[in-house]
Each structure stands twice: as structure tokens, then as C-alpha cells.
Amino acid sequence: MRRITFDLAVLRTFVTGVDLGSFAQAADRLGRSTSAVSAQLKKLEEQLGMPVLRKQGRGMVTTSAGESLLGYARRLLELNDEAATAVRGAELAGSVRLGMQEDFGEHILTEVLGRFARVHPRLRIEACVARNADLMAQMAAGRLELALAWSDPAQAWPALGRTPELARLPMRWIAAAGAGAAGGAEWPAWSGRGEPLPLVMMDAPCMMRSAALHALDRAGIAWRIAFSSPSLGGVWAAVAAGLGVTVRTQVGLPPALRALEQPGLPPLPVIGLRLHRGADELGAPAQRLHDIVLQAIAAQPALARAAVTIG
Residue 187 — very low, low, confident or very high, per pLDDT cuts 50/70/90? Predict the structure, then answer.
């Protein structure tokens, strides 16, 4: 069988185009012309002897072969980038301070810490998982160099102006996974016929709490706070126990919970995500961590689909 040696630049174009949902945007992101991107994709399909993309409407989607290739391409690029970063940063030492919103603490933080430790064993991360307001207060006080947090347009934090949004995600009504399913328990016991909707919420102040209450008030739906918690873990546990519904995005949603498609519940707004920087020019350790966080975000399907500008 003829061996194929993939061109990593071609694979990077392929992965970037799929992640952005547009190969024209991929051309802009990678600093290439659209004709050069087309030539790269043609080269890739000629190497494989089969198409990796097909037209769907006005855009392109992966074929079954393309979907298989995508996972391997991500792994090859990740290893390539990790090797390049490790070589360039072999002499880096010291520490960097990272803050992360609770929604990302379990999944993205684990990925970031593992990759950073492998590439930069002499660098130390001081990580803080906290609520949005706490993270932004620490950024304003200069106690964090980076913070992955939700955008709050009502807060004019100094760091906000120099950090573009990475993604915009819809807020969703969240309930226990078995709730509302055929033969399952009521999700909680709420008929929508004049009974207050039981809510499980983070303690105020909380952007998603405010968005939920505002949406319900505008729709004329009565509500009551059935459970309130200062931590996201407490909210997840109470929702899984059937105490009520909550509002979050689908990022980091535990398996015991699901997003509701419940007639009668009002629509919710979208929320932005930013990787806040404590300074316009980051030091080398913080810049390395910044890049690894962006890569970890791009590898999350829910965030990649909602991407605005990652990179």
C-alpha cells in the first residue's frame, strides 16, 4: 500500500475551515488566498484518493472520510504545536496566574494544566476557579494575568476593552436528564398553569440568574427560588435531584442534566466568552498559557461551533 505523508499546513487549513464553518474565513485566519486554500484541499483529496468535503447548501461539510481524518488531523497538529512550543520555551521558568469560570474548571482546566505541564515543566500555574465577578475583581486588582470568563456588558472592567469575544453561546433552560422524557419523572412538578416555576440558581449577583428572572418576568411567568447556591456544583446537584430548573450554557453540562425544549418557557439571550488579559503585552510564560487555553477551547465542540474569533 502506498504510504501517505500528510502536509501539516494542509491539515491545518482543513481543520481550521471545518472549525470555522467557512474556508474563506480559514484563508483569512491563516493568511492565505482562497485559491491557495482550494489548492491545498484538492491536494489533500488527491493524496487520499477520495473526497473529504461535500457541498451542503452554500457551504461545505465533511464526508465520512473527512470526519475520520479530522480527529487524526487534530492530534497531529496538537503534537506538532506542542513539540514546537516545548523547544522554543525550554528555558522558561517562573509562574503564571490563571483564573477560570466554574463552567470550565472541570474540563478545560484539566486539559490546560496537563498540556502546560508537559510542555513547560519548569513553569508553575497558579490557578483560581471562581465566579465571574470574583475573577474580574482579581483581574482589576492585578492578581491574575489571564481569566477565562463570561462577558458582562454591564461591567466596564479595564481588561474588557483589549479582549475580543471568543464565542457567543445561547443560554439554555437546564433540568435533570430524565425529566420530561417519556415514562420519566416530571421535570420538576410544574404544569405551567399558574404554578410558580421552581428555580435553582447561583446566589446573586449572577448574569444567568438575572437573565432567567428577566425572561420569566417579561413572559408573565410566576417563579420561585427553590434552591440557591454560591457554587456551580451545588446548582448541578440540586437540579439533578429534581428541585427545579436552572439556566446555563451547555458547556460543561454534567451527564445527569440536559437542556430543555419545554413549550411555555421563554427564550433566553446569548452570552459571550472572553479570555481576559491583564496586560496588552503578556510575558512569555503567560503568552504560552494563553495560546494553550485557546487551543483547548477550540477543541471543545460546543465552543468551536459558537466561535467568533479564536486565535
Answer: low
- What long-range pairs does 91-94 form, CB within 8 A, spacing at least 24? 92/120, 92/122, 92/123, 92/284, 92/285, 92/288, 93/122, 93/123, 94/123, 94/124, 94/285
Amino acid (one-letter) located at 223: W
Average pLDDT over residues 259-264: 77
Query: Which residues lie below 8 Å from residue 186, measured CB to CB, with a gap of 6+?
Result: 179, 180
Find how far residue 234's CA is from the centre of its chain. Answer: 21
Average pLDDT over every residue of 97-107: 83
Q: What is the DSSP letter of 9?
A: H
If you search the block for the grid coordinates 483529496, which residue do you land on?
45
Which cell is 123 given? 513553569
pLDDT given at position 92: 56
- Do 167 and 273 touch, CB atoms closer than 8 A? yes
Question: In the structure, what pLDDT confidence band is assigned to residue 275 with cuts at 50, 70 and 90?
Answer: confident
Strands (E), 85-122: 94-101
Q: What are phi and psi of 55, to 5 degrees?
A: -75, 140
Average pLDDT on 75-89 reads 73
CA angle 53, 54, 56 (to 5 degrees): 130
pLDDT classification of 87: cutoffs 50, 70, 90: low
The whole-model pTM stands at: 0.64
| Partner residues linked to 204 by β-bridges | none
SS3 content of the chain, % helix, strand, coil (to 5): 45, 20, 35
